[in-house]
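Sequence only, no structure available. Ideas?
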Amino acid sequence: MDIDTLTRAPETKAGALADAAVTHDEMLRAFEAFKEANDERIAAAERKRADPLLEEKVARIGATLDAQARRIDEMALKGARPPLSREREQASAAAREHKAAFESYVRAGESAGLRELETKAMSVGSNPDGGYLVPEEIEREIGRRLTSISPIRSIAGVREMSGSVYKKPFMTTGPATGWVGETAARPQTNSPVLDELSFPAMEIYAMPAATPSLLEDSAINLDEWIAAEVEQAFAEQEGAAFVNGDGTNKPKGFLQYTKVAEASWSWTNIGFVKTGVNGGFPTAAPIDPLVDLVYALKAGYRQNGHFVMNRRTQSAIRKLKDEDGQYLWQPATQVGGRATLMTFPVVEAEDMPDIATDSYSVAFGDFRRGYIVVDRQGVRVLRDPYSAKPYVLFYTTKRVGGGVQDFDAIKLLRFAA
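Reply:
I predicted one. C-alpha cells follow.
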C-alpha cells in the first residue's frame, strides 16, 4: 500500500460501529506498512546510508497511526454515549420537576422554580450568585464523558463524596504476626501505626456560550448541549492537573511528588528507574529500561499495569524491537481497544513530558490503586446574559480533587545516565 493511500483521510461510513471497524482495519494495514518502512530505515542506518526519504516516510506513517487511533477513540466514545431522553423517561416525578425548572432557567433565565426546589431541599449555597445544581442525569452524563476522554481519570480510582475533603487512612506499620503451636502462648502483638491522606476537592469551571436563538429553539436538547460543551474543557484541565498539578487550587499530579531511585524508594515518594542514556534509550539494548520499569512494580500491581506517555514518546517507542526482531508496540487488536506495549495497555496523555535529558516521560503502574480522583457531588450552572451580549454565558463549575493514594503502585522512567 502506498503512503498516499495510508495518509488519506478515512472514508466516512454510515454508523459509528462500522466506521470504527473500517478505521481499525486501516490502522492495522498502516502498522504493517510502518514496520516495513522502519525495517528499511534500520537496514539503511546499519549500512551507514541513512535515507532522509525513508525517515520522512516512517514519520508520516507514524503520524497516520496516531490520527487513526484518535479517530477510533472518538467514534467509540460517540457510540457509547446513551441518549439522556431515555433516562428522563425513567426519572421520578421530583427529577422531572427539577428538569423542567432547570430548562426554564437555562432557556429564559426564570429561576423561581429552581430556587423553590432547592430551598425545599435545604440546599445551602444554591443561589443566583453561586449557581444552581444541574439535574442528576446531566451530572452523570458529564461524569461518563469525562471518564471516557480524560486519560488519567479513565484508569484511576474514582470516589464520590458529599464533603469538601476525602480522607483515607493507611497503615505505615502493620500489626505484628507470627506462627504459634496449638497450645503455645499467644504474646500480645504491637498495634498498627496509622496515618491519613487527605484529598481536598478544588473548583474547576467552564463557560460555554449560546446565542438567544439557540436557547429559543425547542428542538435543541439542552442536556446534551451543556454536557458536550463542558466535557472537553473539563477533561483538558483535569488531564493537566492529574499529571502535573501542584496541589494549589487544583489536584496534585503524580509527577509532582518527590521522586527517588527505585533502590531507595520509601512511602510518600515515587520510584524511578533510569534509561542509562541522557534523553534517550541505549543503542545496544533499547528495551532493557522498559523491562526494568515493568519489573520495578510488584506482581500484585503489575497485572493491572498501564503505560502512560504522550504521543511523541509513543512514536519513539513504536520503533523499538526486542531481541527476536518483534516490535514491542502493537496496535489494538479490536475496535475500541488500546494499543499495547509489552502486552500492557498504553494510555496517551498529552500532558506527559517529551523525551529529554532527565525527563520522566513514561509512567507505568496500577493507576486504579495508585491514583485517586475525588468528585464532590453536584455540578452548578450560573446563567449570565449580561457579560458578553448578545451571547448568554453559562458558568459551569464542579469540585474535583486528586492525588497519589498508593506510592508503591506507580513507577517512572527517567531518561538519564
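The first strand starts at residue 132 and ends at 133.
Hope that gets you unstuck.
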